[in-house]
Amino acid sequence: MNSWSPWHGCHRISEGCLHCYMHRSDLRYDRNPDHVYKTSMFDLPRRHCRDGSFKLKPDSYDVFTCGSSDFFLEEADAWRLEAYQMMKERPDLHFFIITKRIERLYEVLPEDWQEGYDNVIIGCTVENQKMADQRLPFFLNAPIAHRNIICSPLLEKLNLKPYLDPKKIELVAAGGESGSNARICEFEWITDIRSQCLEKHISFHYHQTGTYLRKDKKIYHIPKREEYHQAKKSGLDWRSDQL
């Protein structure tokens, strides 16, 4: 998956932000992670190579969007319409946005948004039950063409059943927290979410184990380079079209 960061910088707003990788990285290089600015890659979807082809190739398809900020951050309101316009200009790509600020969706929307652009996928992050109950009711009723629920970093057992509408939610992803100070993720929390998804015939993706994973009463320390591999190796991923 390619990435596009039209702006950089963010502010912590909930428990899931405590050990934010972007904050850690910026502080390591003596930068202020709360400073929000438009990046030099803002217009990346429009850029071309010398041969005239797009730098973001159609064969790359999925584009992880705004990974070092939040797409719906207040400071980015002035830039968001142009970002939407660039997404609209590239129907050959799918732009994947993850947010903890879904309630700000309506603040800046294109006039032709209607029920959402078909090439924009929005993932709403819920790290605990409090955030699930706060964010997901709005998320389910917002004008979005493709919705994912992102349970990461997963901090406790979740009951997602009230929100798992297969007509509205295409996929649920779950994963533990990464980093030396990461909070422990229980493997049972992951499998429980998976079971809830299978019951509703909604696709499930276990995207990373996290640094510390408790399984069968034993805590495993998993190196960063192994988190994705070990999650995939578990065989928990499930697609609704497997039925």
From TrEMBL:
<protein>
    <submittedName>
        <fullName>DUF5131 family protein</fullName>
    </submittedName>
</protein>
<dbReference type="InterPro" id="IPR011101">
    <property type="entry name" value="DUF5131"/>
</dbReference>
<dbReference type="Pfam" id="PF07505">
    <property type="entry name" value="DUF5131"/>
</dbReference>
